[in-house]
Amino acid sequence: xxxxTFKYDNRIVRAxxxxxxxxxxxxxxxxxxxxVQLFYPDANLNFQFITFGRIRPLHTNAVIFAFVGNGMFMxxxxxxxxxxxxxxxxxxxxWFHFWGWQSIIVAAAATLPLGYTTSKEYAELEWPIKIAIAxxxxxxxxxxIGTILKRREKHMYVAIWFYLATALTVAVLHxxxxxxxxxxxxxxxxMYAGVQDALVQWWYGHNAVAFFLTTPYLGLMYYFLPKxxxxxxxxxxxxxxxxxxxxxxxxxxxxxxxxxTALPDWAQSLGMVFSLMLIAxxxxxxxxxxxxxxxxxxxxxxDPVLKFMVVAVTAxxxxxxxxxxxxIKTVNSLSHYTDWTIAHAHSGAxxxxxxxxxxxxxxxxxxxxxxxxWSTKLANYHFWIGLLGMMFYIIPIYVAGITEGLMWKQFNKxxxxxxxxxxxxxxxxxxxxxxxxxxxxxxxxxxxxxAYNLYRTAKAGEFEPDTEVQAPALEKTSxxxxxxxxxxxxxxxxxxxxxxxxxxxxxxxxxxxxIIPMYLVKENVPTIASVHPYTPLEVLGRDIYIxxxxxxxxxxxxxxxxxxxERYGEYSKAGEFVYDHPFLWGSERKGxxxxxxxxxxxxxxxxNHMDDPRSTSPGSIMPRYSWLLTQKxxxxxxxxxxxxxxxVGVPYPAGYENGPAQxxxxxxxxxxxxxxxxxxxxxxxxxxxxxxxxxxxxxGTDIKNAPVTTAAK
Amino acid sequence: MEQKVICGIEGVGIYGVISILIxxxxxxxxxxxxxxxxxxxxxxxxDLPLDDSEKPAADKxxxx
Lengths: 713, 64
Fold this sequence. Notes:
The complex is a heterodimer. Chain A is an all-alpha fold. Chain A has helices at residues 11-37, 52-84, 91-111, 127-149, 158-177, 194-229, 236-250, 265-277, 279-291, 297-302, 304-326, 329-335, 340-368, 376-409, 422-460, 488-494, 496-524, 536-547, 562-568, 603-611, 613-616, 627-630, 638-647, 660-678, 688-698; strands spanning 3-9, 180-182, 188-190, 466-472. In chain A, helix 6 runs antiparallel to helix 11 and helix 18 (536-547) crosses helix 25 (688-698). In chain B, 61% of the residues lie in helices and 0% in strands. Chain B has three helices and no strands. The chains are: A mainly alpha, B mainly alpha. Chains A and B meet through helix 2, helix 6, helix 7, strand 4 and helix 17 of A and helix 1, helix 2 and helix 3 of B.
């Protein structure tokens, strides 16, 4: 037997570990700032770059792609080398991957506060950064597959299957959802419009949760949990079913984010059924994790690593039961747009991803530095304060969410809305927002304790840059298996490329079944004759709406419930969104829906409301947008914007952007200035606020002019 | 609207049958496959994360 000596690369693991801790702290602090603004809007210091609408995407991107992303790469690069008994494929690619990923994070942190955003949730970064993400992701995938190909262990442990599925599926999702038409360096318009855009976005959004936050971490669970408990996984058979069941079913469930919207009903039902089916593989995986600890629960008492893991796996189980329940249309009619969704997301993020990351960090640092953890006691304190923080975060937000849902739907005995003013419902839950910020603070204090503990551990030990090991080279043909008895399973995992192709086919089936009819739908969205493209001024106003992240709090999608049509007006139709690149339906309501906002209030109301929301709506938690009153609108880029929109299918006449558009824009702006004068407001026609008012006054008015539709009221 | 879309596809009736077949075959196949796995193979796989040729000093007693 030819025994080879080689070295595991610990430097790259340490680099990703440090990045995980740093970005974790940054991302969570940004989240805390956003949380505080929800009960104290002035916490943005009237500074546009740190206002809720802009830092909410910064928070989500930072915790998902920076904290969990780096945590994922740390765990994968550590476990992959050991499971393959091989050093990573290429040191150069490893470091290209590391610095590339950190640069993308820095670019995100710089551009999102500046308002450069596509507005599509968890895919907000503008096109140059999206291209960079694709390049770095390919580097990661090459490193992953290259390492697998040069492995010295014949079999691929199930964790590696999860890593492979992650690498490939995220690539497919990212590319499909990033199809945009650039309109300048940091502006682009989605290729898809309205309903199609919504379907692609939530096919992506849901599967980003599945294949960025779930599958890689399940792979890590299958490695680190047995490792920390020092006993094999409960059932390897179950882990195989878990894997194939999960990747086969997950990809179909995306439309559950769009229940009761203008998305066709067949797609909604598809999403709901597959979401319910997901309970089976998810709980199979959770039980597999927890049952690994059977007979070893005494270790959980002593070892903080295992404590964190037990809570992480339990949170995974809770979130994957709750998710399918929320995907049932009846439940969703109550939960959608409320803080219930936020609570659900955070039970997964804080519990599953957060705690599993912490457990890996506590596991890895002593090993990388060849020492003991500096303080087990401090780690235990971290565990308890983290758990308490999680409870203080999640429980009040559940209460808030259900309160909102019930209040929005409540009618009085005369058949009128009990709470016709949206503000009443939000003022009611503000105390819950305060409690949530306390919970978040506790959680972050725990992370600081961990950072200090890990720092002291590193100081006390000596870093081992490479671990030297020996293993026999992998023989080309196996002598253990008699000729002709090679099962197809062994062939499958013996050929990672073939395995990869099969896994991709499994995930593509779901995607194709959803997306092909989507193109058929494109031909069949009932067109509404009175729906016209946005005017140039409205295009600029819509882009301001996107820049400021208004859809972080305001939906533009009225569901067909009496409680919604009474409050907001006629429910939204698919045909109303054919010129919406991107769609702006939103996913939460911290403020009222705006789909029929046009004409509800005079222009001057909007002007005063943007200057100080509390002057028109006492108790409002909306931040002030006073900079819109003084900033000039971006006229120079108008030709770029209009021609990009034309290229994605909006029928502006040829040459419209060179002269006629500017003329139309000025005429409409002057009209709004005149409207403002009626309300005793003097404004200049070239300011941002004029464009925004034009857009808001347009919203939902198209079908009011349509002869074929009947208005609800 | 969805009826228009779905009825517009030629021979749409067969799609439902195909999808149920795909799922049935897939999950039955996966189930039979894992049942057919040999015990020594499973034991080998289960031991993979635990089988470390590196033995850092702190490895065994660190978690205690």
